[in-house]
Amino acid sequence: MITNLFCRFTDHPKAVCMNYFQHFSFSFGLSFYFLKKSIQALIHSVYPNLYITSSSDVPKELEDKFSVVGCKSKSNMLLIQDSSENNYYNKALDDLNDEWSVNL
User: Would you say 71 and 17 are in contact if contact means Cβ atoms under 8 Å apart?
Assistant: First the structure.
């Protein structure tokens, strides 16, 4: 029972090539990033001359953030190419892409 509960906390981080604490740290940091961008968008709605590109910059900034962590980081991509478990990581990447395409 305890092992099953722990697996629920670690399955997704493993699928994206992170441990639990790396995933926690990255996701926690994203929450502050989104808070900052939300405040900028709110200010922009009242004062259109402020933070003009803040919302349209988000996709590129997120792409940059995700390109350096987990399975999408260049160092992990090299490891994945050399790995004999290539199918597992390709499935993890596909699952991650599917998850984000639905949520965005």
Answer: yes
Tell me the C-alpha distance between 23 and 31, whole Å.
12
d(CA 84, CA 92): 15
Distance of CA 78 to the CA centre of its chain: 19
Q: Tell me the per-residue pLDDT of 39-91, one tens digit each, with 9 for 90 and over.
A: 999 999 999 999 999 999 999 999 999 898 888 776 665 555 555 445 555 55
Q: What is the pTM of this model?
A: 0.64
Rg (CA), the chain: 17
Helix, strand, coil percent values for the chain (each to nearest 5) = 75, 0, 25
Distance CA 75, CA 24 (A): 20
Find the length of the chain.
Answer: 104
Structure-token pair, residue 3: 């092992």
Closest CA to 54 of 35, 27, 28: 35
- What are the sequence ranges of the domains in the chain? 2-103
